[in-house]
Design a protein that fits this description.
Blueprint lengths: L1 H36 L5 E9 L10 E6 L2 E7 L8 E12 L1 E6 L9 H10 L2 H17 L2 E6 L8 H10 L7 E4 L4 E2 L20 E2 L3 H13 L4 E5 L1 E7 L3 E6 L3 H13 L3 E6 L2 H10 L3 E4 L5 H10 L2 E3 L2 H13 L5 H18 L20 H8 L4 H7 L2 H6 L17 E5 L14 E4 L2 E3 L7
Parallel strand pairs: 1-4, 5-6, 6-7, 8-9, 10-13, 13-14, 14-15
Antiparallel strand pairs: 1-2, 2-3, 4-16, 11-12, 16-17, 17-18
Helix pairs in contact: 5-6, 6-7, 9-10, 11-12
């Protein structure tokens, strides 16, 4: 009996192996057949009338060959194009996708404090997030294929969700780095001025003390923030010598602790700093970028060059809000533009790394953020310097130089095209007529023409 059982088991196992082998063979055959029948990645060829690649390559006409998400080759268009689907941009100048390193997807303009308060008090975080997804799509249509979004202004970590949704292909939008909640000290950031008995929402995470700063950095990074942002000054006034004075928020020890913890965690930190002490403390603490910087002392400019700290001047937004804030009781904003222009010129002459950023959200989303280019030229840059600030330099600030910022084989096919020559007329960058991100073409904003 025992022998019969062993023989039966052996037959069963043998037959099972034959069946299993047949199934596995069928699976392998099916997978092979699927692989054989799967279409190859589409090859797209752009025929550009002119080219500015950020590297000093041929000016055109040029063929850019794209396979999947990446640029495969670039060559002078002196013969037939490489095999593929050709998009004719022969009357346009092709450029690297533009990069805005200071956006606020969750803001809808805040010329006055009342505008800001209404958003936080009357709009749910869900509504603001829906609005932010629309804004992300708008940035693509304006030709910005990458952004650094510098905090949600009271909407928590919803920017991390938007970034993830873009990365997963759920919603369209630019490549995005998120700064989540930002930080300021107790009592220095809206909502302010309400009855003490009311617990009001805040546009930032309130942080006090060096240990509190380290704890906040750890919390924000654990929830997916790419950058840390701090507000380093407030309450501005002009003093002797045309210096923009301020009240610093964090102490230097607090700032150093926040910067140290951010860098220890291998991340970067941006500082909103408009004036004398906010900038100085931020530079001394070793932040990675100064945002706005209406006034920067010469000594701090020198330190920024030595430490490689970037300057993101956001010129247009200051001009946009100045009159409204002056009428609301802060006339200093009318003087800040003049001071800003002089600061920008000194920083440019000294060799500070200036990255393009607009603070869009601080102004209306129906205004093309590319207006910033013309302001940078008015303040002293050449058109090419302004364009480099939104491509090569911006990619460096975001740590993405190996992926975007220039057009070359191996990098993502983030490409825009404009009429005319933006190196002669920088306002052509407000007329983007073609947008590609990662090999995918997106519609442009029809209202910009």
């Amino acid at each position: 009996m025992r022998i019969l059982i062993h023989r039966f088991a052996a037959i069963f196992v043998a037959r099972g192996l034959v069946v299993l082998g047949g199934v596995l063979g069928l699976m392998v055959h099916s997978v092979s057949a699927m692989a054989a029948s799967a279409p190859a990645q589409t090859v797209t060829v752009l025929r550009c009338g002119h080219l500015w690649d950020g590297r000093g390559g041929p000016s055109g006409p040029v063929y850019i060959e794209i396979k999947g998400e990446k640029i495969v080759s670039m060559r002078a268009a002196t013969s037939s194009p490489p095999p593929g689907v050709v998009t004719d941009l022969k009357d346009m100048t092709c450029l690297p996708g533009l990069i805005d390193t200071h956006t606020h997807l969750f803001l809808q303009g805040d010329i006055t404090a009342a505008d800001y308060d209404e958003q936080l008090l009357k709009q749910s975080p869900e509504y603001r997030t829906i609005f932010a997804t629309v804004n992300a799509r708008r940035m693509l249509s304006y030709g910005f294929t990458a952004i650094r979004d510098l905090e949600t202004e009271g909407a928590g970590y919803a920017d991390v969700d938007i970034r993830n949704a873009i990365d997963r292909g759920i919603i369209p939008g630019p490549r995005m780095q998120a700064a989540s909640r930002s930080m300021d000290v107790t009592g220095a950031y809206p909502l302010l001025g309400y009855a003490p008995g009311l617990t009001m929402p805040k546009g930032v995470q309130e942080v006090d003390g060096a240990d509190g700063g380290r704890r906040a950095v750890r919390e924000q990074l654990s929830h997916g923030a790419d950058w840390i942002k701090v507000y380093s000054d407030r309450n501005y006034r002009v003093i002797a010598g045309g210096v923009l004075d301020d009240i610093p928020t964090f102490t230097i020890d607090e700032l150093k602790a926040i910067v140290d913890e951010t860098h220890r965690e291998r991340h970067k930190i941006a500082s909103h700093a408009n004036a004398l002490y906010g900038v100085h403390n931020s530079v001394e603490a070793g932040v990675d970028s100064i945002e706005h910087g209406n006034y920067i002392a010469d000594a701090d400019i020198k330190t920024m060059v030595e430490k490689g700290i970037y300057y993101v001047p956001t010129i247009f937004v200051g001009e946009y809000v100045a009159e409204g804030r002056a009428k609301a009781g802060a006339p200093v904003w009318l003087q800040m533009g003049v001071i800003h222009k002089a600061t920008f010129a000194r920083a440019l002459a000294a060799g500070v790394k200036i990255a393009f950023g607009t603070d869009i959200g601080g102004f209306d989303w129906n205004i093309n953020p590319a207006v910033e280019f013309n302001w940078m030229v008015k303040y002293g840059m050449t058109p090419e310097q302004a364009l480099r600030s939104a491509t090569v330099v911006a990619a460096e600030l975001m740590g993405l130089s190996d992926q975007i910022g220039t057009l070359e084989p191996g990098k993502f096919a983030d490409i825009v095209a404009v009429p005319g020559n933006p190196l002669h007329d920088v306002t052509q960058l407000e007329k983007v007529g073609f947008v590609m991100k990662g090999g995918v073409v997106y519609p442009v904003n029809a209202t910009q023409h």
